[in-house]
Specification:
The structure is a homodimer of 453-residue chains. By secondary structure, chain A is of the alpha/beta class. Chain A is 42% helix and 17% strand. Chain A starts with a strand and ends in a 6-residue tail after the last helix. Chains A and B meet through helix 3, helix 6, helix 8, helix 15 and helix 17 of A and helix 3, helix 6, helix 8, helix 15 and helix 17 of B. Chains A, B: Belongs to the TrpB family. Chains A, B: One of its GO terms (molecular function) is L-serine hydro-lyase (adding indole, L-tryptophan-forming) activity.
């Protein structure tokens, strides 16, 4: 059999728990600090913007956290998600490596993001919340929360980075089809938006600005909370369903990964796939190498510093210790919009600092070329974000061709490219360029990092 | 359990045969006629544009036709496709009806079209063909054949209706990502294209014209054949995998449909789901009602005549007896591009004429409203074509609410709307209008039907 092989779990194997890596960390995470007092934050501080159940998960050190049955009900529509052996790609690469990919594009929103949007909507609904605010860059997260809001009867307000709002009208249409409100950020609807617009009337926005607006709106009304699509512990926790499924699927295949690869913007799809395997290793189980792939133009893990920083531009969020390029840094407009964030999940930052994760970075042209090579072999056009993982997997498979090793490579194909065809159009027309970040802008952003006592 | 329920077959239940309804027709189909001689066409006549294996299937009356293993290998990437019980939609409609939908949007091209693109590419490859030409309207068929060409190493040339070529650049990018060539039709590359352009330099094209160009190009070179994405017997045959899977899945659910519903352009997704059930009925099994749903603006079954006509504008194709609005009729530019065809599959036409299929039609605004209602309940945004089936299913479920009957309704959700978000954008902005066909144009097209001896 030389073709793609699919490993599909039946529903009785849909995981009943998420995996919390905080239970197995060799050194605990640094505390999250209140932005005002710079003292460790309390559950009460967070309760202004998050529901209690989410805050508990954010702070938990329990290894297994139960997935509520109503969440599993919705997950069942597309989960367990398939794991594929990329035999056609292996053949095209003439590699002895075994390449597996977990495909999260099967969700109705086309990415891994509903894995956390659904439980976040559920917990908010359970606690009587009527409205959730959030931000979105490329639109995958906003689409997913819009979908989740529709499933649980919640009003959703999405601040979409202005440049994406205009470049990706179909993502906006997707959200509005599910009844969500989608606002171009910076906007006149918040003080933080108005402040930016007063200074930069032509601002095209950033995730940091959009987060400020969403958090501000959530803090204004008791019936409104805020949801974040990446970075935080509870988000990474919800994504571990992908890795737990993949563990079972690889067991069906009689295999175990030597390498687990994912692209990293805020870090959630990478962590979701990698943490269950890393947990095994941390508990004395099998060794595994983890590769986090970021764009060269927003090289948080590879060029950032490990420091306390804000999650947003207006400095409304708590301070977390993470790799960061500085919360005032605005990355250039490359196409993998989901990877344009100045920071990185504290858990991933911490584990990278401890040496458990190897970060690497690639330019967008190389990533698009890899994505097209993948599509021609495997039939699926990846999202530009996912192309970074594809690129790294191909590089590793090519190393195996040179060395003759037959490594088992697992990567997260975190979404399809159906809403990103303009990027492919530009690439195929030779119009796409590699972008670099301005070193002086990062230096300035880093110079502005808060000094933490 | 009040939520959506998924019925997923494991791979060992992936069908090994397609179902050929020609074996069970109470009255055989009228012969296909040579466009020149008006005599019944021979396999040799067809061999100029089709591979032998496909011609055999086109003419076969065997009930079961084996699916080649290399085709099943590729199918396995996304098949068996899920069958869902739409419990959330049922609840929203407060209907005692049970609504099931077969979801074909899980294919890499996002629709049911790869079900026939894959075997057609396979048979061509097997017979040494190097290049396949085809036409596409909205782009779903062209995308699927591009994908299939990439899987089997074939060159693909797609003539895309010019208006869609410009309105749907992302479908073109999709095809080009898989290495296919996509040409706006009418074009200067063929005599039939040049003839149209000479008379109508601003022609926006039609499926009929694009078919003429693709057939002409295929007839020119021995290493080139032509592929059609709907209408013909072998295409409908390949699509029956959906109905055969659905039969097994409904058996898992302990249910059987009272109604099977599909949208009809050329007829392939409807036939694919409905024919296996109709075959049961024709062989003396359970009764089932079949509803074919078409757009009011291209009402082939509901307003056309049952007559011999050409499949294309330039009259290059054989003559088939079918419901038709006349091969020179160009329907107005509504959004369900896949339903803009002047004719209807001969098998469907024949069975409609015999009373086994009930045709109906809806306007596009009603269909979009139904699609959005479906999306909000079930989480999937349907393709504009599929919205026609959704609309009919909702109407039938509402009838059950009135009558108190608990009918079992099965419909084909033949594709997702990811590449059709402009239509949703226009609908949500109130810019979409209901379109009507010009009765005088249909009258003129019908007046020009060939007189068949």
């Amino acid at each position: 059999m030389s073709d793609t092989v699919k490993y599909l779990l039946d529903e009785q194997h849909l995981p009943r728990h998420w995996y919390n890596i905080n239970a197995d960390l060799p050194v605990p995470l640094d505390p999250v600090l209140h932005p005002g007092t710079q003292q460790p934050i309390t559950a009460d501080d967070l309760a202004v913007i998050f529901p209690r159940a989410v805050i508990e998960q954010e702070m938990s050190t329990e290894r297994e956290i139960e997935i509520p049955e109503p969440v599993r009900e919705v997950y069942r529509q597309w989960r367990p998600a398939p794991l594929y052996r990329a035999r056609r790609l292996e053949k095209a690469l003439r590699t002895p490596a075994k390449i597996y990919y977990k495909y999260e594009g099967v969700s109705p929103a086309g990415s891994h993001k509903p894995n956390t949007a659904i439980p976040q909507a559920f917990y908010n609904k359970q606690e009587g919340v009527k409205r959730i605010t959030t931000e979105t860059g490329a639109g995958q997260w906003g689409s997913s929360l819009a979908l989740a809001g529709s499933m649980f009867g919640l009003e959703i307000v999405v601040y979409m980075v202005k440049v994406s709002f205009h470049h990706k009208p179909y993502r906006r249409a997707f959200m509005e089809t599910f009844g969500a409100q989608c606002i171009a950020s910076p906007s006149e609807t918040t003080a933080s938006g108005r402040a930016i617009l007063a200074e930069h009337p032509d601002s095209t926005g950033s995730l940091g600005i959009a987060i400020s607006e969403a958090v501000e709106l959530a803090a204004q009304r008791d019936d409104t909370k805020y949801a974040l699509g990446s970075v935080l512990n509870h988000v990474l926790l919800h994504q571990t369903i992908t890795g737990i499924e993949a563990q079972q699927q690889l067991e069906m295949a009689g295999d175990y990964p030597d390498l687990v690869i994912g692209c990293t913007g805020g870090g959630s799809n990478f962590a979701g796939l990698a943490f269950p395997f890393l947990g095994e290793k941390l508990r004395g189980g099998r060794d595994v190498e983890l590769i986090a792939v970021e764009p060269s133009a927003c090289p948080t893990l590879t060029k950032g510093v490990f420091a306390y920083d804000y999650g947003d531009t207006a400095k409304l969020t708590p301070l977390v210790r993470m790799y960061t390029l500085g919360s005032s840094f605005v990355p250039p407009g490359f196409h993998a919009g989901g990877l344009r964030y100045h920071g990185m999940a504290p858990q991933i930052s911490h584990l990278t600092k401890l040496g458990y994760i190897t970060p690497t970075s690639y330019n967008q042209l190389d990533c698009f070329a890899a994505g097209i090579q993948f599509a021609k072999a495997e039939g699926i056009i990846p999202a530009p974000e996912a192309n970074h993982a594809v690129k790294a997997a191909i590089i590793e498979a090519e190393k195996c061709r040179e060395s003759g090793e037959s490594k088992t490579i697992l990567f997260n194909l975190c979404g399809h490219g159906n809403f990103d065809m303009q990027a492919y159009t530009d690439y195929l027309a030779g119009k796409l360029k590699d972008l670099t970040y301005a070193e002086d802008e990062v230096a300035m952003a880093l110079a502005g990092l808060p000094s933490v006592a």
